[in-house]
Amino acid sequence: MPGISRKAAIALAASASLALLATACTGQSDSAASDDASKETTINFWHAWSAPGEVKAVQSLVDGFEKAHPNIHVDVVGNMTDDKMNQALRTGGAKAPDVISSFTTNSVGKFCSSGALVDLNPFFEKSGVDPEKTFPKAMNEYTQFDGDRCAVPLLGDAYGLYYNKTAFEKAGITAPPKTWSEFEQVAKKLTIPQGDTYKQLGFMPNYHGWETTTEHYLGQFSPTYFDKNGKSNVGKDPAFEAAFTVQKKLVDALGGYRKLETYRSKLGDEWGPKHPFHTGQVAMQLDGEWRLGMALDTKPKFDIGVAPLPVPDDQADQYGKGYITGTIAGIAATSRKQNAAWELVKYMTTDTDAVVNFSNAIHNVPSTLAALKSPKLKYDPRFKTFLEIAANPNSTTAPASVNGGVYLTTVQEFGYAYESGKATDLKAGLKKTAAQIDTDIAQAKQP
Amino acid sequence: MSTSTLRAKHRRSTLRTLAFLSPWLIGFTVFFAYPLLSTVYFSFMHYDGFKPPTWSGTKNWTYVFEHYPFFWPALRNTLWLVLVMVTLRVAFGLGVGLLITKIKTATGVFRTLFYLPYLAPPVAATMAFAFLLNPGTGPVNSLLEKAGLPTPGWFNDPTWSKPALTLLALWGIGDLMVIFMAALLDVPKEQYEAAELDGATPWQRFRYVTLPNISPIVMFAVVTGVIQTMQYYTQPLIAGKVASGVIQGAGTQFEPGYPDKSTLTLPQLVYNLGFQRFDYGSACVVALVLFALSMAFTALLMRRKGGLINAGER
């Protein structure tokens, strides 16, 4: 019946087009913060923590809030990935989160520019809290984009250097290296070859060596990722060339990319007890503050030393700085209970005792200047190094960008090519990387 | 009969036909036509999933084809997998099917043994393979080393990552084996007897009796294999993640494709662009490329001359 099929096809196409037009015309509905936070209400809080101890710590943080605000009840949902949160922020609805907390600071630019999370500046003003005076500089920086403060730091991560004190003593090294050239010497001294592999490697410099990402190395060189016009500075700021050169020199000095990659593939995983720093296979490790607790849990056969990461030779006076990132919290634009949600966010992120208790339970760096100095903070004396890195005004972070962390992965992609010898012209490669970053941003910024 | 009565009859018949067709029509509209038309529509829009979409002309297309550094490597990998993995899977599936239909004793045990791996969830199977094929600590390389053979880097080496994925796909051949076994057992016995009487060799019996009889099933296996491989997502992503050692933690971002973009596939780009970069327009472009490729491959395989089955067999 060809006639019927044709008619059916036309009807089908027409209804599909109508449906398409109908969906195409739906935009994001505006949601104003008009709820009364003093009335009885329940809000949803989604977070990413999943380990039993962490989940318990979040619950006790929320319990503290509910005690202080008996009218606001919080439904807590844990173990939420960024992808699930993105989806829920898009769709909204009664079960969607009012408050979210994500591990990825890289998403802040996307969250702010898309309007997925509300700008918290008016809330801060209304509450008389000055974020500049409340949060450390780097954390203050990574929670906003283009003047839109759509996120707040909720505990932070600082990166430093872990070293095997016993191996240091055996090699006759008395103090952790402070500059990258000292670091190279120390890493070489600590490297003990065994056949075509290593008995002990001084340091795993490859970008796939977990936290030895390009952005973590770059943090020590205080790079400016973007110029005043928002264009990529990767091809212009000498910090990038310097950082790539230092890393490549380390790779070559310690055995070359291929040999190091083969060794790396034989090592235990980053979050397991057989981490090569725990087992003594690698003598120095660039890592976050969480490593100390994880390493001590495995009862290693050596003493662990902690220090800031080295700085470039010409910035020796800035020794003590580090790369900072962390967890963020924000309020969903689709939330109809934004005032109540703000009460929770304000409590979790600015109440000194709440921040300190949470930090004690999770073993992350506190995210307010007051909490960093709080006498109630309980920690291993070595943990203090990370508190100092977090409070150091020279510490750096990677700025928020309209397309999130895309520029960081573009830099990283070039890093992989350069360390493996696939790319040899550093200057030309960095210029090409900058051009790619600009193109990606232009694509994301379309009107 | 008057014209109006005829018209009314015709209308009734039309409505009746539409009513019978409605389950398919609804399914077709909701699950095929609407998503496809939306994808075409959004490929010309700038849309981040939050703000209303805006017209961007061919910008997304230009971006994907000219500026998105992952597109061409992913396309090359996808085509490689379609050609190599599908061919080997069909050949291996048919081989195992043939072998198992010939076995006289303990057939149940062998069938179960070959089918079992297919039941393993893809993530678990990939992680197990990443463990077995670990260049440093995996048992496969230990055995190769003991035998004095070269030890590949498998998932850690761009040259070996796709062959490693192919091995994984061949291991999970159970679905194809069952289909081929059913087809092989359906080939009329008298045709084999006739061929034997004519003095046909085993190869000739396979070529002139078995193959023509099962060619529609081979066709089915190839077409569904091509479509499955076009949607290949989980295994390369997990293999890349496990082998690279990067587990997404605070402040770190993982781009798929380790090592050296060799395990990137087009579906990974759809996810990366749409759900991680919030660039739905470009994600739609990649999805349409996938759709066009699947259609092209299927048309090529099903064409009247030179396709996998000839006109007489349809």
Structure description:
The complex is a heterodimer of chains A (about 450) and B (about 325). Chain A contains 20 helices and 9 strands. With about 450 residues, chain A is an alpha/beta fold. In chain A, strand 1, helix 2 (about 50-70) and strand 2 (about 70-75) form a beta-alpha-beta unit. The longest helix of chain A is centred in the first third of the chain and has 23 residues, at about 1-25. Chain A is globular, with a radius of gyration of 25 Å. Chain B has about 325 residues and is mainly alpha-helical. Chain B has a two-stranded antiparallel sheet with strand order 1-2. At the A-B interface, helix 1, helix 3, helix 4, helix 12 and strand 9 of A face helix 1, strand 1 and helix 2 of B. Chain A: Part of a binding-protein-dependent transport system for a sugar.
How many helices of chain B? The count is 13
Oligomer: heterodimer
Question: Which protein chains are joined by the largest interface, and how many residues does each one contribute?
Answer: A-B, 73 and 53 residues
Number of continuous helical runs of chain A = 20
Q: What is the succession of H and E elements of chain B?
A: HEEHHHHHHHHHHHH
What is the terminal separation of chain A in angstroms?
Answer: 48 Å
Q: What is the radius of gyration of chain B computed over CA atoms, rounded to a whole number of angstroms?
A: 25 Å
Report low-confidence residues of chain B grouped into runs of 5 or more: none
The overall average pLDDT of chain B, rounded, is 90
Categorize the overall geometry of chain A: globular
Strand content of chain B: under 5%
First-residue to last-residue Cα separation of chain B: 42 Å
Summed over residues and divided by their number, the pLDDT of chain A gives a mean of: 89
Beta-strand segment tally of chain B: 2
Runs of chain A with pLDDT <50, length 5+? Answer: 1-31
Per DSSP, what share of the residues of chain A sits in E-state strands of 2 or more residues?
5-15%
How much helicity do the residues of chain A have? 40-55%
Largest sheet of chain B: 2 strands, antiparallel
What spatial form of chain B do the alpha-carbon principal axes imply?
flat
Looking across the biggest beta sheet of chain B, what order are the strands in?
Answer: 1-2
